[in-house]
Amino acid sequence: MPANRSGVALSDPAWMRWLLIGTALAFLALFLLLPLVAVFAEALRRGFGAYWAALVEEDAVAAIKLTLIVAAIAVPANLVFGVAASWCVAKFDFRGKNLLITLIDLPFSVSPVISGLIYVLLFGLNGLMGPFLKAQGIQIIFAVPGLVLATIFVTFPFVARELIPLMQEQGSEEEEAALVLGASGWQTFWRVTLPNIKWGLLYGVLLCNARAMGEFGAVSVVSGHVRGYTNTMPLHVEILYNEYNFVAAFAVASVLAMLALVTLVAKTVLEWRFGAELAATRHK
Amino acid sequence: MVAASSTDTAFPRAGGAVTSILRKPSVIPGFGLTLGFTLTYLSILVLLPLGALIAKAGGLGWSGFWNAVLTPRVWAAFEVSFGLSLVAAAVNAVFGFIVAWVLVRYSFPGKRLVDALVDLPFALPTAVAGIALSALYAPNGWVGKPLNELFGLKVAFTPVGIAIALTFIGLPFVVRTVQPILEDLPPEEEEAAVSLGATRGQTFRRVVFPAVLPALVTGFALSFARGVGEYGSVIFIAGNMPGLTEILPLLIVIKLEQYDYAGAAAVGTAMLLVSFVMLLVLNLLQTWMRSRHAR
Amino acid sequence: MAIQVSGITKQFGSYKALDAVDLEVRSGELLALLGPSGSGKTTLLRIMAGLESPDAGSLQLNGEEALGLKPRDRQVGFVFQHYALFRHMTVFDNVAFGLKVRPRGQRFGSAEIKRRVTELLELVQLGHFADRYPAQLSGGQRQRVALARALAIEPKVLLLDEPFGALDAKVRKELRRWLRKLHDDIHITSVFVTHDQEEALELADRVVVMSQGRIEQIGSPADVYDHPSSAFVYEFLGQVNRFDCTVEDGVARIGNGALSIPTDPAVRGAAIAYVRPHDLGVSPAAGGPGRISGVHVVGPDARVEIELAGLSLEAEMDRERFGALGIALGDRCAVHIDRARVFAR
Known about the structure:
The complex is a heterotrimer.
Chain A lengths: L13 H30 L3 H10 L1 H34 L5 H9 L6 H12 L6 H7 L7 H11 L3 H13 L2 H8 L4 H30 L2 H7 L9 H10 L3 H28 L1 H8 L2
Chain B lengths: L4 H4 L7 H6 L9 H28 L2 H9 L2 H34 L5 H7 L2 H4 L2 H12 L6 H8 L7 H26 L2 H9 L4 H30 L2 H7 L9 H10 L3 H32 L3
Chain C lengths: L2 E10 L2 E11 L4 E5 L6 H9 L6 E6 L2 E2 L10 E4 L11 H10 L9 H14 L15 H14 L4 E5 L7 H18 L2 E6 L2 H7 L2 E6 L2 E6 L1 H6 L4 H6 L4 E8 L2 E4 L4 E4 L6 E7 L4 E5 L5 E9 L2 E8 L2 E8 H7 L6 E6 L3 E4 L1
Parallel strand pairs in C: 3-8, 3-9, 6-7, 7-8
Antiparallel strand pairs in C: 1-2, 1-4, 4-5, 9-10, 11-12, 11-14, 12-13, 14-20, 15-19, 16-17, 16-19, 17-18
């Protein structure tokens, strides 16, 4: 946190303070708060009954389930990857390390639509591996595996990019101490490394999960939009909206908005509570 | 004396090929395992599919590629996507800086809540943001209606709407890159400036702003890059009129729906190329600024 | 347990950290590896622990080749410079760690672990701190936890990397004496790394002076201080006056003959002479060759700066003796050298 800023020399005049605070708050209210409020207002426009009906409707339930399934596969996969990647990047010095870090971050700079497109080009019917997959009777695009792959791609760097700076900052001394004291590699990881990175890990998983459940562009391309089968919640929102079924669309959207709020609260709590431990990831 | 040969087998913790890429041998185990897994996972899920994109676009040949990319419709979409992303990133640079400044320098009731709210665009699914903004700025929406009645300004289904969606999506990038730099700015530097006779405005212009500028440029670049690729929050509010409010990612989706895979790949590749070049330029600019204001 | 280091060489990129180092650590002794940063002392210690592997050479622990052994199989205790305490574990769990991670067959029951840890915590005088976390301890307390943790696995050798480096001066002195006493009680073969000559000279049975990846001298503290075997050791151990000189016929002449020192006749031509400040005598002499250019009284000592034939000399004596001399700033004086060493260039 900043050093004491209360010095007389650095305090701005009150009119300026309040002008700037007012500008910032007005901007945030207009751009962030209002859309959030609108989601819930629109969802409840026809009362709670209509709201609830939209959520328990068959296709909505299927979409919620599918979203959970996709996240339940994609998030653990990226969790394991993130831990492995940050272990080898943070604990060792090897040729091509910077290139590896850049490649890990690559999916963040690719448009979600392109993230879906690349899997269509690889696994789609007319794709590079399409004929082979068809012969084997495997369907990836317009099916759940495609949704999982696209979701893994867009959430690929989340865990790794939280853990790499954290583990780099913590160094390897505690691990060395454990090894000298007789611990095996796995014992060292479970008993020393993991407890030290757990909050950073949770932070990364939280962000990864929020994106995995909310991803729209990438899954939209690979989904095929088959109601009840390949529709995740964000895709279901789109379909309902395009059918002018606004109340239902905003009802499903409100569930996603609540997920976002829960994520923000959990994230904020983590930052307040373990701010010092997470400092490496937040201020890199 | 035991010769060097004994040390080759001293630590049989990783295969010879793996140890040879290590710059410095280490007693920590698991290098071969984690690097192997990382590279495999990365190759299958990221590099191979991206390779498929380049291969597909490359299959068109030079002339085929340019023919697919240089149609008026694609060109217009490029202008819409890149132009409006620049506008949004510029808006975010100004207001994001003010937000970061206010959050770091001033205290006011509800500050922590506001701080947390800044990350909303990261957490809120883009489709949700899209329909919410669309409903707000529609001609009969909470904001759209007064704007239309008072100023005759139409937002939804015009480029202005796209810029608003891109501003929403890009705001946290600026705030979150500028904020830590402002926090870490030593107050002594400003006090020194004041003690040397500088006014508050001079102190800001000559001491604070140059120190924060590289971060501001980074935030601007991230916000811009995010805007170019953005899809979910834009398509609902855009109206999607070819040549006017049609963004690049949507054009890719349309080409895919028409089974024009090669065309989609060509546009996608071009988009990646332009984004990378622009990010590269901004990165160089930033490195240059950092080297001037090394701290 | 004795340690035999032979021909150990270690290169980091183009930088040679250790250059064919030979060293014997005797069973039960307390040995100091002393040198400036970059002299290779920490690397040598880490090689003994198995935390680094050398490029060439051999390492024997009690006569058995140990380089192929993993750290966990070497039975060494290692105390890290910044302690490397497990920050998420209590003091008790830190000390118990080495016992808890033993393979199932060799592991003690929890009652036995508790007994041993408690005993160790008593030994390092931290019995009341078992439930604290490392962050709640002072530097000196952390240091002792690190020591107890290293001793818990009943190591045959104790290796300490700059054990007092992170402590403030007063705590450092106390802990130093305490560690010496502890070593006298348990007699475990111990090697510690330090860049502080006072620490090495006070604490160790034998001192190994290192520079640029090589061993300069091995000997008892008195030995290395009184009879430095090289110019480096002379300069590194304690304050010293250093003069360029020329040697002819067994006499080193300093400052065009203003001072002369009898020396080993084998040395000829350009050389360097070293004189410790307390081996430099000053006496008041009107019209003498020297002039007092500075006087600093620090606690019980007096340091006197002298200008002589364009040279700047420093003499040191106790305050009483200085008072008895009755000299003041600007006075003329004579200088005589009680003891010096001359090394050929």
